[in-house]
Amino acid sequence: MFFFRMIFRSFSRQFKRRLLIAVTVCLSATVSVAMLGVVFDVGDKLNAELSTYGSNITVQPKADAVVNDLYNTGGDANSNASGTSESDPTTFLKESDAPKIKTIFWAFNITNFAPELNIHADVNCASESVDSSSCKASGVPIVGTWFAKTLHMDSGESTVAGMNGMRSWWKLDGFWPKDDSAQGLIGTTLASKLGVTKGDTVTLYKTTADGSRNKQRITITGIYDSGDSDNNAMYIPSSTAQVLANLPDSIDKIEVKALTTPDNDLARKASKNPNALTQDEWETWYCTAYPSSIAYQIEEVIPGSVAKQVRQVAALQGDVLQKTQAVMVLMTVLSLVAAAIAVANLMAASIGERGSELALLKAIGATDGAVSRLMLAETAVISLVGAIVGALLGSGVAQIVGHVVFGSGITMRPMVFVLVFVLLTLTVLIASFSSIRSILGLKPAEVLHGR
């Protein structure tokens, strides 16, 4: 009872100094919870943020991949809508195999995908509002793709895939075409060259492999600005492109947008040769959402394909993630160091003011251990209150950071709170160490006689 009475009396005195300790711990807990909460959730946030700027995995026929590796072209062998090559593809995947991407182990991490058939065609205008004599172009890049295609899976689930979600950064004047229609989008550069606007109709002419000359009228539903050489192209439904080129069920590329875990040494080792992994390494790699493991699983379900991660996106994600985490961890460490210094100084000042009280306790029989426990208990209770309030405030700050920076809330994991309380406990103990040493050095006779 004496011990608890002393704690109560201690709380009733030096209120201001104890309040400063509580506020210091509260601020440190707020910063620590907010920063560590973001650190543990920032991987998915950054991945989702970067994935808005295009695919991070591309799937192409195995023959094209061999050509890429042989000549170190770095892209698909036939190029894409950027127009860097005017040759049409010669090897293909089946469009009907594309939905199998949503059947892999990491299917829920596949946020979007879109098959492509990249061909070239001649374009003539077919609108009375456009001068047809000047509205002609040869070898125009045509991309047959999905825009917002609804897929019904064997599992009974449905998903929507296509360029509507893959090209979210495009500036579109008009609206997206419908799949399996005679509609299309045209890039700003090509539209300016041809003199067409949304609502106009153009005619595509394509000489097929068997020598026949096919044509297809396309109504322009919108003009897009991609900000790059893609503005020289035209996007139409894949089924329409296949009819035009006489290539049924054919595609030469699939762009995949997936939520992935940044590469580490294991992922880099696996990307070179998965067969070189041990059984434990292989299971860890296969069951982690690395870009290489997702690509490997895509290859398993799409016959004759090679799936590769877009290295620039993966490298950027890993680099940005590491730097962001480093900054937040540094802020957490600095807040804990500041808290330790502040608590140590406040406790030292408190002991200096209460020297006679502590000396009296030792004079009437209290041991050094009892007096030390009294001070630690007082500091622990004050710090606990500050830590609880700080944890609540930190959760709120983390949500603000999430909405301001990433546009969505932060998922607060229980381990964040456990880690912060452990770190604060160690911080307070370290800060109390010098104060406890000064208590042990108190000599009741000298203190009580004012020496």
Topology of helices and strands:
Elements: H1 2-12, H2 15-51, E1 57-61, H3 62-71, E2 93-94, E3 110-125, E4 136-145, E5 149-152, E6 158-161, H4 163-166, E7 171-174, E8 183-187, H5 188-194, E9 201-207, E10 213-225, E11 234-237, H6 238-245, E12 250-251, E13 253-258, H7 265-272, H8 279-286, H9 291-301, E14 305-309, H10 311-353, H11 355-363, H12 368-406, H13 414-440, H14 444-448
Parallel strand pairs: 4-11, 8-10
Antiparallel strand pairs: 1-13, 1-14, 2-12, 3-4, 3-9, 3-13, 5-6, 7-10, 8-11, 9-10
Any overview of this molecule?
The chain is of the alpha+beta class and 451 residues long. It is 50% helix and 19% strand. It has helices spanning 2-12, 15-51, 62-71, 163-166, 188-194, 238-245, 265-272, 279-286, 291-301, 311-353, 355-363, 368-406, 414-440, 444-448; strands spanning 57-61, 93-94, 110-125, 136-145, 149-152, 158-161, 171-174, 183-187, 201-207, 213-225, 234-237, 250-251, 253-258, 305-309. The strands form 3 sheets. It has a 6-stranded mixed β-barrel with strand order 3-4-11-8-10-9. β5 and β6 form a beta hairpin. The protein is elongated and about 110 Å long. Residues 74-79 have low confidence and may be disordered.
Calculate Rg over CA atoms. Answer: 33 Å
Helix content: 40-55%
Spatial order of strands in the largest sheet? 3-4-11-8-10-9
Kindly estimate the percentage of residues that lie in beta strands according to DSSP: 15-25%
Count of alpha and pi helical runs = 14
Extract low-pLDDT stretches: 74-79
Mean pLDDT: 79
Give the strand tally.
Answer: 14
In sequence order, what are the helices and strands, one letter per element?
HHEHEEEEEHEEHEEEHEEHHHEHHHHH
The main β sheet shows up as: 6 strands, mixed, barrel
